[in-house]
Design a protein that fits this description.
single chain, Sulfite Reductase Hemoprotein, domain 2, 21 strands, 4 domains, about 550 residues, Sulfite Reductase Hemoprotein, domain 1, five-stranded antiparallel β-sheet, alpha+beta
Length: about 550
């Protein structure tokens, strides 16, 4: 993974010192609250419903074991002993004291971490495929390109005050696991005529106006990636609306202009900077790639020594079938830790669990781990012969739920329990659904089925692209929930369709059960939920959930 050089470390240290001074002056009454708001947001600090919230940057989801142990230490000494993995592959602390945040940032800086640009109208954390560098379907490792984009965008003077926040995602695989089509800019590594380059999508996003991004450039050569992305941002910065924050995202601009006209504007802007100082040299590309060289893999053959164990240990077999994926290197496997135990808020991890995960990374995966946008954790490089031993350790740590990609593996925002923007609580809804569907055999029979929950239209829980999406809404001061179905964030991305009128919280598990029962009844063979939905359409689900009294 990328390691700071002296310049990086100096820059982060100076930022910590600057923010410490700003905080002290605010607490002394020398900086007004509205002015301090912009300063704290630039350092990842929000003021939420009950306490401040600090969002820690995890570039493209990669962490070292040392960094995760530091986060565990911080949650124990400055918070309430747990953190929250977000859908941008970051980590949030929900209970820090405002006056102690500079100390937290100093602790983070000691392990090459920070909270810069995790909020505000700027380029946010660049995300990518959690299996990058290990996936069998990979065209090229996307992490060096995500790192180049991170370095380019951090403190970029032209893009520190955009009309709204800006999100970029990169994938280097044939299967999109980074949800690039619902980002402001989505970047897909492709190969054309033997040359690797990029397809560029723009104008995707969720929130109040969910939109699938449009292809605006079919092929960009590798050396031109940064200049082309800069041209996109320049057009957005120039023409994006600033009079209405609900209309300020690039998706609104692309739709208003049409993708064709927007692409023309980008080409015009690009002509001014193409081949300029932002052009990537071979040396610079190779420098970035050198930070992500393959670890010291052993020369192994693909084996499955657990065959005999599976018949005697069904739980292990279930875990292998759902949480372990093939690796591009023989003798290795990709292991997913599902952070979704019933009774625990999806994405929440205790300080003790963080330290255990760090230990697992040291022992089994070259001291590295990845935070996924589904709020889980991936160990990308585990020897196949170690899988059973690792599984036993995960069971003891309560991190071995064999439910990856199943109904109870929900994406869920913190909701009204924490967030001041939320219309309704998310976590109790997630827990109620998990308790309703607590039969693993039934879940395995159902197969892949994604439920996403958001507490408001900001869609931090990505409800628009859930196979089943749940949105918290306010009805005359009371919490209700709108249900939608048919969404997807993968290569065939789609926006879910609203089922109908909203429901009270206690009704939601019954509604989900009705939808799932209809799917189980109508599916053909091993048909997945989305396939059944596309074959039947939405009306049978409407009829089941809202029966007519004819």
């Amino acid at each position: 993974m990328y390691q700071y050089d002296a310049y990086d470390q100096k820059m982060v240290n100076e930022r910590v010192a600057q923010y410490r001074d700003q905080t002290e002056r605010f607490l002394a009454g020398e900086i007004p609250a509205d002015e301090f708001q912009q300063l704290r947001l630039r350092n990842g600090l929000y003021v939420q419903r009950l306490a401040p919230m600090l969002r820690i940057a995890v570039p493209y989801g990669m962490l070292s074991s040392e960094q995760l142990r530091k986060v565990a230490h911080i949650t124990r000494h400055y918070d309430k002993g747990y953190g929250h993995f977000t859908t941008r592959q970051n980590i949030q602390l929900n209970w820090p004291l405002l006056e102690e945040v500079p100390d937290i940032l100093e602790e983070l800086a000691s392990v090459q971490m920070h909270a810069i640009q995790t909020s505000g109208s700027c380029v946010r954390n660049v995300t990518t495929d959690q299996y990058a560098g290990a996936a069998k379907d990979e065209i090229e490792d996307s992490r060096p390109w995500a790192e180049l984009l991170r370095q380019w965008s951090t403190f970029h003077p032209e893009f520190n005050w955009l009309p709204r926040k800006f999100k970029i995602a990169v994938t280097g695989s044939t299967e999109d696991r980074a949800a690039i089509q619902v980002h402001d800019i989505g970047i897909r590594i492709i190969k054309r005529d033997g040359e690797k380059g990029f397809q560029i999508l723009a104008g995707g996003g969720l929130g109040r106006t969910p939109v699938i991004g449009s292809l605006i450039k079919d092929f960009v050569e590798q050396e031109h990636l940064l200049t082309y992305v800069e041209a996109v941002l320049r057009v957005y910065n120039r023409y994006g609306r600033r009079d209405n924050k609900y209309k300020a995202r690039i998706k609104i601009l692309v739709r208003a202009m049409t993708p064709e006209v927007f692409a023309e504007k980008v080409e015009e802007e690009w002509a001014n900077i193409k081949d300029g100082p932002g052009t990537l040299t071979d040396d610079e590309i190779n420098r970035a790639k050198s930070c992500f060289m393959p670890p010291a893999y052993e020369s192994l053959e693909d084996v499955d020594p657990q065959d005999e164990l599976i018949s005697d240990n069904r739980a292990f077999g279930d875990w292998l079938g759902h949480n372990v994926l093939p690796h591009r290197v023989p003798g290795y496997a990709i292991v997913n830790l599902a952070i979704k135990s019933t009774g625990v808020a999806p994405g929440d991890v205790t300080d003790e669990q963080m330290e255990l995960i760090a230990d697992f990374a040291d022992t089994y995966s070259f001291s590295e781990l990845r935070v996924t946008h589904e709020q889980n954790v991936t160990l990308a490089d585990v020897r196949q012969k170690d899988l059973f031993t690792l599984w036993q350790s995960l069971v003891h740590a309560k991190l071995a739920s064999p439910n990856l990609g199943l109904l109870t593996d929900m994406i869920c925002c913190p909701g009204g329990d924490y967030c001041s923007l939320a219309n309704a609580k998310s976590i109790p809804v997630a827990e109620a659904i998990q308790r309703r569907f607590d039969d693993l055999d039934y879940l395995h029979d159902l197969g892949e089925l994604h439920i996403n929950i958001s507490g408001c239209m900001n869609a931090c829980g990505h409800h628009h692209v859930g196979n089943i999406g749940i949105l918290g809404v306010d009805k005359k001061g009371k919490e209700f929930y709108q249900v939608s179905i048919g969404g997807s964030a993968n290569s065939a991305a789609s926006i879910a369709k609203i089922l109908g009128p909203s429901f009270a919280r206690e009704e939601v598990p019954n509604v989900i059960e009705t939808i799932v029962n209809l799917y189980a009844e109508k599916r053909e063979a091993e048909e997945e939920f989305l396939d059944t939905f596309h074959r039947l359409g939405i009306q049978p689900f409407k009829d089941a959930v809202y029966p007519r009294n004819d």
